[in-house]
């Protein structure tokens, strides 16, 4: 039986390439080796695998359409482009962007084609719903060390993935639908790569964590995956959804001389603009929208309640404690957690305002400049919230302690509070699934502090230990990487971390 399986799926292998037969056609990927702690591991990688038709022309601002079969043998030896996203300071980081970007990458241990199917982990990248790409996360490390199949995916970002008129004209959430279709593609096809479609885990960090948190509240995903890991973000976070989608859409229409009625005429006009024109206009519109607040917490292009993917606000879903969304959530094994210094994101916001963050964040700045925008954006401008939060996070201790209190406010409000609520809801009721929480507390000696008074593990700190895109310098760093990968992949295989 083992020989037959190998002949069925692995048609050929050279020194550098390997060809599999799938239900969609033949596919040629790379056979390679990775050295980890002076031990060599062999693996296969299949890059630029299309799961949807290019979302261009009439398919712009619409749910993705399955790609279907390909003709001939698919060349999966080079990465595809990243999805369209705003320019960043270093163009070499994301040198190739395109609307035609709905691809995924599959990393398998060399031994994946056996009679024993391997568990599968699908990574949803972060980047505030506006930046990032699947290829930026080398999946071979987790694959070979954990003996699992790793899949990294692209999904539409920014205006292309989350433009919304908040009605039926352009409902939005296209990036979430892309993720969902990629998950379904993996479920339907991973068997050809030696994967077990009954043992699939989705995991992601930051906006990837928010995305995981929203996917696990969509009951139409039932059967597509069995476990989920939400890192530094969960769907019921206040910042997981955009409260300014429609007003931002008006600004984009005006910037491109399209009707601001946000009608079908508007959409036809926007679909006729080039991707570059739309990207530039959307970047300008978002900046204008966020400039309305002295201090902005929100993301202009993000998921919305569309009545289909999201039928209600995730916070309300969690508060209800029942319903099909919560039932599906509780049917999954989950890990939900964060780094202790998640509020480090606040420092990035302050840096953009040219604030001297090294000098610290005094209580006067927290209470008079940062907090007043908080209830405006999330609590109908209830000013009592400002005084209550100011009182809780104000301290008469050192400026270093006060600065950390400002960081803690941000982390508590947008990361820890929603994570704890999700964990509590998941662990209630009569069900047999597992609930885990994690926290990463401190820096280790291969990472430097952003500022002298900040000594905690900041937002996204753990990702490099799961996907080492550069060599880990210290023994302690290598050990942390080994432990995290062990916990995550054990969970994917068994539902337990040990």
TrEMBL record:
Residues 22-495 form the Carboxylesterase type B domain. Pfam families: COesterase (PF00135). SUPFAM superfamilies: alpha/beta-Hydrolases (SSF53474). PROSITE patterns: CARBOXYLESTERASE_B_1, CARBOXYLESTERASE_B_2. InterPro entries: AB_hydrolase_fold, CarbesteraseB, Carboxylesterase_B_AS, Carboxylesterase_B_CS, Type-B_Carboxylest/Lipase. Gene3D superfamilies: alpha/beta hydrolase. Its EC number is 3.1.1.-. One of its GO terms (molecular function) is hydrolase activity. It is an enzyme of class 3 (hydrolase). Keywords: Hydrolase. Belongs to the type-B carboxylesterase/lipase family. This is Carboxylic ester hydrolase. The lineage of its organism: Eukaryota, Metazoa, Spiralia, Lophotrochozoa, Mollusca.
């Amino acid at each position: 039986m083992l020989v037959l399986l190998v002949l069925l799926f692995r048609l050929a292998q050279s020194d550098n390439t390997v060809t599999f037969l799938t239900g969609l056609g033949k596919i040629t990927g790379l056979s390679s080796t990775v050295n980890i702690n002076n031990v060599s591991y062999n693996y296969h990688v299949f890059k630029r695998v299309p799961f949807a038709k290019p979302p261009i022309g009439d398919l712009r601002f619409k749910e993705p359409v399955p790609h279907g079969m390909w003709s001939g043998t698919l060349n999966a030896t080079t990465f595809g482009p990243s999805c369209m996203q705003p320019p960043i300071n270093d163009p070499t980081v994301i040198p190739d962007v395109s609307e035609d970007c709905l691809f995924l990458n599959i990393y398998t241990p060399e031994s994946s084609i056996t009679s024993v199917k391997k568990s599968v982990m699908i990574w949803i990248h972060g980047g505030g719903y506006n930046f990032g790409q699947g290829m930026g996360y080398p999946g071979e490390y987790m694959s070979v060390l954990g003996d699992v199949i790793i899949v990294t995916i692209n999904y539409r970002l920014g205006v292309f993935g989350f433009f919304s008129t908040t009605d039926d004209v352009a409902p939005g959430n296209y990036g979430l639908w892309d993720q969902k279709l990629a998950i379904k593609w993996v479920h339907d096809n991973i068997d050809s790569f030696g994967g077990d479609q009954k043992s699939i885990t989705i995991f992601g960090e930051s906006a990837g964590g928010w995305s995981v948190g929203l996917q696990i509240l969509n009951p139409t995903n039932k059967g597509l995956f069995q476990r989920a890991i939400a890192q530094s973000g969960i769907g019921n976070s206040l910042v997981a959804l955009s409260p300014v989608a429609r007003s931002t859409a008006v600004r984009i229409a005006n910037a491109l001389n399209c009707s601001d009625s946000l009608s079908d005429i508007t959409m036809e006009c926007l679909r006729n603009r080039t991707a570059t024109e739309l990207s530039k206009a959307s970047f300008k519109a978002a900046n204008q929208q966020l400039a309305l607040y002295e201090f902005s917490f929100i993301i202009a292009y993000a998921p919305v309640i569309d009545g289909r993917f999201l039928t209600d606000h995730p916070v309300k879903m969690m508060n209800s404690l029942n319903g099909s969304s919560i039932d599906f959530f509780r049917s999954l094994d989950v890990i939900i957690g964060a780094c202790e210094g998640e509020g480090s994101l606040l420092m990035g916001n302050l840096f953009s305002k040219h604030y001297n963050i090294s000098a610290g964040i005094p209580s006067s700045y927290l209470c008079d400049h940062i907090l007043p925008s908080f209830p405006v954006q999330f609590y109908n401008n209830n000013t009592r919230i400002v005084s209550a939060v100011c009182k809780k996070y104000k301290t008469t201790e050192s400026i270093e302690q006060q600065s950390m209190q400002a960081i803690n406010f941000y982390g508590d409000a947008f990361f820890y509070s929603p994570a704890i609520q999700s964990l509590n809801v998941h662990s209630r009721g009569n069900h047999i699934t597992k609930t885990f929480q994690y926290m990463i507390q401190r820096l280790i000696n291969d990472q430097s502090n952003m500022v002298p008074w900040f000594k905690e593990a900041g937002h996204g700190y753990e990702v490099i230990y799961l996907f080492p895109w550069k060599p880990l310098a210290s023994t302690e760093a290598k050990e942390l990487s080994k432990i995290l990968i062990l916990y995550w992949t054990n969970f994917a295989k068994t539902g337990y971390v040990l």
